[in-house]
User: Fold these one by one.
Assistant:
Number 1:
Amino acid sequence: MGGKKKISKKNPEAAKGEVKVEEKKKAKPAAPRKEEQLEPGMRGIVRIAGKDIKGGVKLMKGLLRVRGVSHTTSKIFANIISEELGITPNEKVGKLSDEQIEKVDKILTSIHTRNVPAYLLNRRKDPDTGKDVHVIMNDLAFTQRQDIEREKKLYTWKGYRHSYGKKVRGQRTRNTGRKGMALGVMRKTILAAAQAAKAPSGKPGAPAAGAPAAGAAPAAKEAKK
């Protein structure tokens, strides 16, 4: 049987060895990947579109950190940036200058003005402008909140589900998506509250609602006689 070896009191060296092995495992820091290692003259962190990106990351991979850029769009955006700036899509972010970073920010915020297919944009037929645009970072979060509030005001089915905190896209709710206490706990609290409401709220020493009065029992005995 393969089990843990028992360490006797006579041989404490084995226990010390195990502790040393655990300490070594904990002390090992996570080594950076070869792809993300910094070269001399590179920046450690670069801020693109309001997001901090490690300097050793390639441009195509670094764009994935930006909210609103997916795996498919990152390749297309990296190709557009490489054409306009004269660099390769695999250029490391830490090698970019301040001017190049500003140009990258402008391209990302106005990517819908380039030759990008409309089906790749994340906001097609905007309700306010009617145009196909691509929104990133804080603008994306703001437009999402505005859309939800609009649905709530119109009281559409989606707005109704949003206002009550339910799932919106037709998911099942029998087993998942529950919030708050468990069902059994809620029943216990409801029953306890109902019993507390039924309990008498008179002065101390007063008889309960269903209890007979003090002189009722002797009077009943005399009536029987």
Number 2:
Amino acid sequence: MMQCHKCGHEWTTPKRVKLPGVKESCEHCSAYLHCCLNCRHYDPGQNNQCRSHTAPWVADKEGCNFCDEFDFADSDATAARDAGEGQARAALDDLFGASGEPTDDENLDRFRNL
């Protein structure tokens, strides 16, 4: 399902049109749809925040752009990937213990048990 990055409203389109136009905006919140934040290549951890190495640098990730590499992100695939990351994180926490710092009460109990 193709959704607006800002409000989550589903983008519906005629069957022949596969991508939003460059200046097309969300009918619910008026955010641009043809933008980096809606693209499947967008990744804040990558160089230029994009997985595509041929895409041009885009400074405004929320603004409309003319990138030829744009491909609307599938929110179902993104949700499945995020769920997989959550499962991996839970498995690591089970293996190595929770990554959170102990509370003051826990530290006090440890001190008293010395």
Number 3:
Amino acid sequence: MNELKKELYNLCISYVQKSMEAAQQAIEEAQKASNDDTKSSAGDKYETSREMMQQETNRNLDQLNEANKLKVTLNHISFSGTAEIAETGSVVITNNGNFYIAVSAGILTVNNENYFAVSPFSPIGLKLKGQKAGFEFKLNDKNYLIKKVF
């Protein structure tokens, strides 16, 4: 079970790392474009272009900051223990899918099984957190039954 958690964790780390790299590359490209933009006789065009590049840089800095927060969250996950109560770092098996409570990273596949990587603060994460096998709940007109937590 801990091997599965480690694999899911590593897939989440990879997801966050790719997000960080993409944001960093976009920041560098926007800064390079801004620096390469030479002042033309139409000063307003130059200023508009520089402002657009600055906005792009700021947007990507925000994405980089969010990815850093996700990385910090992942760094606090422990693989030890076999808690029967769902918490951050838990794998939760339900009748409507398998979930890994960590960060929102979409669908992760391990050994041909799909797991939804969800934030503990997402709607489904909030429903799962603190629960154990046998708990039932409804979300978005779907009924869920927790079969197993580890």
Number 4:
Amino acid sequence: MIGADAIRGHIDLIVLAILESRPSYAYELSKTITDRSRGEYVIKQTTLYTAVKRLQAQGLLDSYDDVSSTGKPRTYYALTPDGTTQLARKRAEWRSTRELVDHFAEGPDAS
């Protein structure tokens, strides 16, 4: 199981990446995160809602009300053009972060 501390700085990237393919509502986002991580990370609802509201306040997400496939009313979130741009930035930042951490994690003898 991956701890929340290891993921904390990357929640925005995860949410933006999921929403790249289509709009989604909070419960579906949460389930997607759990499913795609094969159960290794389960996001707390408060963490998810805080991230979604922050991204929305930054103009990276739009929201609208609709009915889910089960007939329940839901608030859906979708990327804005600025959200798509930010996703590209976050992906580049992640690649750099991963390379740096790998450099140290692999030890001094790794080439």
